[in-house]
Write a structure and sequence with these properties.
Elements: E1 6-10, E2 13-20, H1 22-32, H2 34-43, H3 45-54, H4 57-73, H5 75-88, H6 92-104, E3 113-117, E4 123-130, E5 139-145, E6 151-155, E7 165-167, E8 171-178, H7 189-196, H8 202-211, E9 217-224, E10 230-236, E11 239-244, E12 252-254, H9 267-282, H10 289-297, E13 329-337, E14 342-347, E15 353-356, H11 357-360
Helix pairs in contact: 1-5, 3-4, 4-5, 4-6, 5-6
Length: about 350
């Protein structure tokens, strides 16, 4: 196990910190979490299906096109995945496939739900929904690559730390899986999301997402820390869409369908969306951080914590983890309180724990 990864906890949530050169950071992460990375590669049904897909002529051609587009536009993040694989002692092509499974695989919607409240007392809430396989290995990660601004992210072992929730000095955002409207050639959505982490204002984030359309679809739900502006930007598969909160007392929400760029919706996304739409329409004043936390940690029909069959855990789809779904659970809830500059984390089945935002980036 690498001794260059600092291990802490936010309540029950493991919290890792790593700094150094790009290669040092990602090799250390791979070494630190080698066992769960191997477990995910062996046990994730989506990955097994994709292995079969890319063994066909059509699938191989799509993988090669996405790989070339990613390497051309974002070579440094290709290097990150290679270093992660080296540290874990696993096949680099499989790590690449793991990070691309939402870009050309099964288009069925997964999970995740987001709520954003604008204003001086802004709030951003995110439910990270994913396969139960990830329940014991998702963690918080503070990443300080030499020459770059520090970021905090929820991290799935084996993946770039960008597909779930991110905080930097200027922005906070949650990521929702959305099915791309059409199959297009472009860089992997995980890689575009990783590049976005060095952007610290909302307008610049919108510009980057417009300039770098990813193959697969993500909805980014932003809060700008200095101004309290919030917005949702849907991007992927050649489709884009944006919505900004109209002002104080309003609420933006998102689940797993293209609300602004046009697209179908699965039953889980619709059910959670109906709850959030009713909440937004109630108009009883802006929600506070505690109310957003309750909304995200309460199961249907009162809230949007999506649960596996039988009520175990809490969840809704393959979410920020992306891709096709079997049963999934809400792995972790994150609520950022802009008034107090604190983040509250609720891992599946655990009690809430809060930490100052400044500590997450230290």
């Amino acid at each position: 196990m690498s001794d260059s990864v600092l291990e802490r906890r936010i309540g029950a949530l493991p919290w890792l910190s790593v700094s150094g050169t790009r290669r040092e950071c990602f090799r250390a992460l791979g070494e630190h979490d080698a066992a769960p990375i191997r477990s995910i590669m062996e046990g994730l049904p989506q990955l097994q299906a994709l292995r079969r897909h890319v063994s066909t002529p059509v699938g191989r051609a799509r993988l090669d096109a996405a790989t070339e587009a990613t390497a051309t536009r974002f070579p440094v993040h290709m290097d990150e995945m290679a270093a992660l694989a080296e540290g874990a002692g696993v096949d680099a092509r499989t790590v690449l496939l793991l990070n691309m499974r939402g870009d050309f695989g099964d288009p069925r919607a997964g999970g995740c739900s987001d709520v954003a409240v604008p204003g001086d007392r802004w709030v951003l809430g995110h439910n990270e929904d994913g396969d139960p396989l990830f329940a014991d290995c998702i963690s918080g990660l503070t990443l300080a690559v030499d020459g770059e601004r520090p970021v905090f992210a929820l991290w799935y072992p084996g993946m770039l730390p960008a597909n779930a929730f991110t905080l930097n000095r200027g922005l906070a955002w949650g990521v929702d899986h959305v099915p791309a409207a059409a199959a297009t050639v472009g860089p992997a959505r995980h890689v575009v999301a990783r590049a976005l982490q060095q952007v610290e204002d909302l307008d610049a984030a919108a510009e980057l997402l417009a300039a770098e359309p990813s193959a697969g679809g993500f909805a980014y739900n932003f809060a700008e820390r200095a101004t309290g502006r919030v917005a949702t930007i849907e991007a992927g598969g050649g489709a884009t869409g944006r919505a900004d909160a109209p002002g104080a007392g309003s609420m933006l929400w998102h689940t797993n369908h293209l609300r602004y760029a046009g697209g179908g919706a699965g039953p889980s996304s619709c059910a959670r969306g109906e709850v959030l739409a009713r909440t937004a329409a109630a108009g009883a004043g802006p929600l506070g951080a505690g109310e957003v936390l309750d909304l995200l940690t309460t199961p249907l029909p009162g809230g949007v914590r999506a649960e596996a069959a039988g009520g175990a855990g809490g969840a809704g789809g393959a979410g920020g983890a992306g891709g096709a779904g079997g049963a999934t659970v809400t792995l972790c809830t994150v609520v950022i309180d802009g008034a107090s500059d604190e983040a509250t984390f609720v891992p599946m089945g655990c009690r809430p724990a809060s930490v100052p935002l400044a500590d997450l980036l230290a």
